[in-house]
Specification:
Elements (H helix, E strand, L loop, with lengths): L1 E7 L5 H10 L3 E4 L6 H9 L7 E5 L11 H10 L5 E6 L2 H11 L11 H18 L2 E4 L5 H12 L9 E8 L10 E4 L20 H8 L2 H23 L4 E8 L5 H14 L5 E6 L4 H7 L1
Parallel strand pairs: 1-3, 1-4, 2-3, 4-5, 6-8, 6-9, 7-8
């Protein structure tokens, strides 16, 4: 039997993940009382039991005392009861935004501020994150991207590391993305903006891609960037990093940065052991500015 404990920060997507796992054929139970956990696992471990895939949701919403969960898991380890822990996390500012959008109160904030409740929750469940088999940071994940990651782990059985990479293009005149881990400036490359037939196109168009990548400097830069990123990624993974934002900027975020971000994204996408997404933050802002 495959038994998965789905847990993590409130607002990080646990309920959504459980629904997805249910669609993938898992028998799902949400917020089972912690003292019943060992018996629950034993019940499905019976040879005659037909259910072979089980997912159990655990979090602080039900008012459960998580202080006893560590002892329960330690006891399960000693009894060699097999389980996996999927820990869903998100950045504090993202969690706060989600709570404000839904107008929900954090389960541990009481009548106080949401950020206070988040801090308390992080402290309570840190031991689960340290024990987690898989950690998914949903700060930047769309629902369909979360589904893809879950399918990789729980359906296709692909190898997994807790790192999700965002490759982002941007325009320096709109500011550097605040959540960037690595920032690269490609304004040294010839600008398609000054070519009449390319000016209104973007780095998503073949003509702009051919112009940008037709320059030897672009190819050399991309080769060196790829070497550096491939060196850094395994070291970030060893340090426990689970989100990496690689930002590539040009003047307006429309031509050069988009082309190189797309190319780097395709290179990284070939790797199967971590998730990658592409985002073009400023690709349409020049058009919006002109309309105004």
């Amino acid at each position: 039997m495959r038994f998965v404990i789905v847990t993590g920060m409130s607002g990080a997507g646990k309920s959504t993940a459980l629904k997805m796992l249910e669609d993938m054929g898992y028998f799902c139970v949400d917020n089972l009382p912690i003292p019943l956990l060992p018996r629950f696992v034993e019940m499905f471990e019976q040879p005659e039991e037909e259910v072979k895939k089980v997912a159990l949701g655990l979090d602080v919403r039900g008012g459960q005392d998580f202080s006893g969960l560590k002892d329960v898991l330690d006891d399960m380890d000693q009894r060699e009861l097999e389980y996996e822990i999927l820990f869903l996390d998100a950045q504090d500012d993202v969690l706060i935004k989600r709570y404000k959008e839904t107008r929900r109160q954090h389960p541990l904030s009481g009548s106080g501020r949401v950020d206070t409740g988040i801090a308390k929750e992080r402290e309570k469940i840190m031991f689960l994150k340290m024990k987690a088999t898989y950690i998914l940071d949903t700060s930047k994940l769309l629902t369909r991207e979360l589904k893809i990651e879950l399918e990789k782990i729980f359906v296709k059985g692909q190898s997994f590391c807790s790192l999700y990479i965002t490759v982002m293009s941007f325009g320096f005149k709109y500011g550097i993305p605040q959540d960037s881990d690595l920032v690269f400036d490609v304004r040294f490359l010839p600008n398609p903006y000054y070519i009449d037939e390319l000016k209104e196109k973007t780095g998503n168009d073949p003509e702009v891609q051919e112009y940008v990548m037709g320059n030897e400097k672009s190819r050399i830069f991309l080769s060196k960037l790829k070497d550096m990123v491939e060196f850094l990624i395994p070291n970030y993974i060893l340090e426990g990093k689970n989100q990496l934002v690689i930002s590539i900027g040009c003047t307006g975020g429309k031509h050069r940065s988009v082309t190189l971000a797309n190319t780097l994204y395709r290179m990284l996408k070939e790797q199967e052991n971590y998730g990658v997404r592409i985002e073009h933050r400023d690709i349409g802002k020049d058009t919006i500015t002109k309309r105004k």
